[in-house]
Design brief:
heterodimer, A: mainly alpha, two-stranded antiparallel ribbon, 7 helices, 4 strands, B: mainly alpha, Rna Polymerase Sigma Factor, Chain: A, Arc Repressor Mutant, subunit A
Chain lengths: 163, 182
């Protein structure tokens, strides 16, 4: 690595400048991120150092190509599609509605669970499936006291169940 | 609807319009450079704005803080998309084998660039996502190191260091491709 004693620098006269230091800031220099005094140092160094000039040329070429590539699509309209814009407007103006839309599966499951729970509670309250015990004094007859057909078995006596 | 509510609604709508109009273009360009797909870039930008409306607690108006936040979230959304896409691609690799190559549709003059610039884009795609992010912000969007530092969460000196190495890498990649070309 060659070294230069930059005696002509405007402010840092006599400062030892290494190529490594300069190369480390070449991109900063090209994109105007260095202050004026440091830029002047780099410029001065590049005027004398062929190796750094070569490296600077490579970075400059890469930067130019990237800048050319960055023009791609610049002329085209960079806007969101109409349906996406509508979706965004809804998210901004109606956050609750948007939340429901976003979590529609969860909302559907919750609504279904709620409907089932309400129906079940209603059934429990009305007891549609339960057998009520017979009122006092009510008699239920099981069997009719007839002989089973085609047999000699004695007739089944009628049983009476009363409360 | 009361007058106050109507006014509030109008205000909200105006804030929405100004925000989306200010940032949709730069964000779309940024996202499409990372994901290389205009439709996916639209999804990325839509999700970015959705997150903004859901999470941003302060006043919604264009500002450097909102801009940094949007770029950061857009980058994360783009990276998420790339991860999902790479998983999906792995799944479909076998199916794609043996099928004829498909060419992207010609999207007009605005999307045509020189061969050299095309090589630069390819080289950019071979950098790490972090390096790509910084190069795009610096070269494409012409952001300062300070702005990039706010967006990326890196220190200003770190931004300069990564950019310097990214450019060196790209320069050597371009040199290689130049030498290998007939």
């Amino acid at each position: 690595m060659s070294e230069h004693r930059d005696n002509n620098g405007p402010r840092d006269a006599g400062r030892l400048l290494k190529c490594g230091d300069i190369r480390g800031v070449l991109f900063d220099y090209m994109t105007r991120e260095l202050g004026p005094s440091r830029s002047e140092l780099v410029r001065e160094h590049l005027r004398r150092c062929v190796e750094c000039q070569r490296e600077a040329a490579e970075i400059r070429e890469t930067l130019d190509l990237l800048q050319a590539a960055s023009q791609r699509g610049k002329g085209a309209a960079g806007v969101l599609s109409e349906d996406r814009r509508r979706r965004l407007a809804r998210a901004c103006m109606h956050p609750v509605l948007d939340w429901v839309y976003e979590h529609h599966v969860l909302v559907s499951v919750l609504v279904a669970a709620l409907v089932i729970a309400v129906s079940f509670a209603r059934l429990l309250r009305t007891r549609l499936w339960s057998i009520d015990p017979p009122p006092p004094g009510f008699t239920v007859t099981i069997g009719e006291g007839k002989r089973p057909a085609g047999t000699n078995a004695p007739p089944v006596p009628a049983r009476q169940v009363s409360d | 609807m009361s007058k106050a509510r109507k006014a509030l609604r109008r205000e909200k709508l105006a804030a929405f319009e100004s925000l989306v109009s200010a940032y949709e273009g730069p964000l779309l360009r940024y996202a499409s450079t990372i994901v290389h797909d205009p439709d996916a870039a639209q999804d990325v930008v839509q999700n970015t704005f959705l997150r903004l409306f859901r999470r941003w607690k302060e006043e919604l108006k264009p500002s450097p803080r909102v801009s940094s936040w949007l770029y950061r979230v857009a980058h994360n959304c783009a990276v998420d998309y790339l991860r999902k896409e790479s998983r999906r691609r792995d799944l479909h690799t076998r199916q794609a084998e043996g099928q004829p190559d498909s060419f992207p549709p010609d999207r007009g003059e605005a999307f045509r660039i020189s061969e050299g610039a095309e090589r630069a884009v390819e080289a950019l795609g071979r950098l790490s996502l972090r390096e790509q992010q910084l190069v795009i912000l610096k070269v494409y969007d012409e952001k300062s190191y300070r702005e990039i530092s706010e967006i990326s969460g890196l220190t200003v000196s770190n931004v300069g260091y990564i950019l310097h190495h990214a450019m060196k890498k790209m320069a050597s990649m371009l040199k290689e491709t130049k030498e290998t070309q007939p």
